[in-house]
Amino acid sequence: MARTPLFGAAGVVRGTNDAATREPGEPFHAGMLGFRSVWFTWRAPTNGIATFHTGGSTFDTILAVYTGTDLTNLTSVASDDPRGGFGTSEVQFNARWGTDYHIAIDAVGWEQGTYVLNWDFEATSDKLPVLLQAPAYQTVRFGETATFSVMAEPTNVTYQWLFEGVPIPGLVSSNLVITNVLGTTSSNLVVTNVQPDNLGSYSVRVGQAPRCFETAPVALQIGPCPKVQLYNFLLPAFEACSGTKASPIGRRSAAGSPVLNTNPPTQGFVQVGLGASDSAGGDVSDARDESSACVASLSGWKWLALQPTNSGILEMDTSQSRILTALSVYRFDKEGAMSISPVACDLKSGQRGLRARLCLVVTQDWFYGIAVAGFTNPAGVVQVDYRLHPLTTNFLFGRRFTKKGTNRIEIKCCTANSPIVLERTDTLDPGQREWRGIATNDGPCDAFTYVERATNQPGRFYQGHFPNGAPGP
């Protein structure tokens, strides 16, 4: 890895990442997907506390610090994506005299522009607390108890838990019971009788200012299966799906703990709260997806990673959400290649045209990244229902909506068969209905969409005729 040396106890450097790339074997920094990294090396002049931040950069930065001699033996020291504010990053770490620290500045997705790297060093015998175990995402059933745990040293360190970035006051607040015992390296946050109002992001501040740090936020979610979780970023979602820190992104993962398996089941749901502390923009650059209008409206992305053990038709629905929602699906090829392409996206095909619903054919052992978000007002509770249908399943769903002052009807057909003939009748009596074809699709199709101008005539029905299968509803 090419590393530009930095000199001195404090300083600032500027440059661009326009020509930067991701190196073979390079780690993904701070659990994010980045593809334009720039590297520096800084040697600590003595023992103390070092601070690096990217304030002034013109793109959404990721910042990470490592020790080691090359990309194959790096040890993570600190990393961050959003803590600097306004899309910038900041890290602090205990620096040891004479140690070389390798600093990577990366971009979220494929963003590019001017970076600014600032650093400062305080020579001191004080030390920042060291994180031994970070809180983990939790998925529990309605009314169950969730426990968040953190471990750090030294043994007399103090903890302050936060919900949506706001400190939780006192030891007992409502149904939040906080166990915070000095003299141990463990502190627990116990949330009893979990309800939708408890859903959201939790983090913990370790230590006393200014010798403190805050852990990355993790989400409390509601669902029937603990393994089904929505993550703030795509990379941790894939790591959880594969059951290993060796992410399936970049190569095929043989040892899987797939989400769409008999355990967890092939159908279910998960609820998560979207709030102010959620990341906006996700891991995939909008610049690579300008053709998908709904993706441009996303904010506060949450990611669900899927690896089906059988091919089938995946149906996803956010109709039970409390806020306006969007869904977007990205597929990785069977080798886990990094090229990300949206294969399905929806804003308003769900309940009353205010929620998202989509379906697509998914392939056995391939990886899929499902992005869910709120739009217009992204704060609130989102529920994602999912179901994996057999490939022989054919079905339709539709909605009536207004677009540019014109009433329209949109029909979507989910099938793994081809060709598809969409039929319509205007007869209310099932026994008297005469169906006529109104649209056809002669090639393979994940989801066939038909749009027509709506009328005020009641009793209009649609069905899909599939020569290779039974008619849809």
Characterization of the model:
The structure is a single chain. This protein has two helices and 34 strands. The chain has 473 residues and is mainly beta. Strands 11, 13, 14, 18, 19, 20, 21, 23, 26 and 28 form a ten-stranded mixed beta sheet that branches. It has a five-stranded mixed beta sheet with strand order 1-3-8-5-6, with no helix packed on it. The longest helix is centred in the middle third of the chain and has 9 residues. The chain is elongated.
Write the layout of secondary structure elements.
Layout: E1 4-6, E2 10-16, E3 38-43, E4 48-53, E5 61-67, E6 75-80, E7 90-95, E8 100-107, E9 114-123, E10 130-133, E11 138-140, E12 146-153, E13 159-163, E14 166-167, E15 172-173, E16 176-179, E17 186-191, E18 200-208, E19 211-214, E20 218-222, H1 234-242, E21 267-274, H2 293-296, E22 299-306, E23 312-317, E24 325-332, E25 341-346, E26 357-362, E27 367-374, E28 380-389, E29 395-403, E30 406-414, E31 420-425, E32 436-441, E33 447-453, E34 461-465
Parallel strand pairs: 1-3, 11-20
Antiparallel strand pairs: 2-9, 3-8, 4-7, 4-9, 5-6, 5-8, 10-12, 12-17, 13-14, 13-18, 15-16, 16-17, 18-19, 18-20, 20-21, 21-28, 22-27, 23-26, 23-28, 24-25, 24-27, 29-30, 30-33, 31-32, 31-34
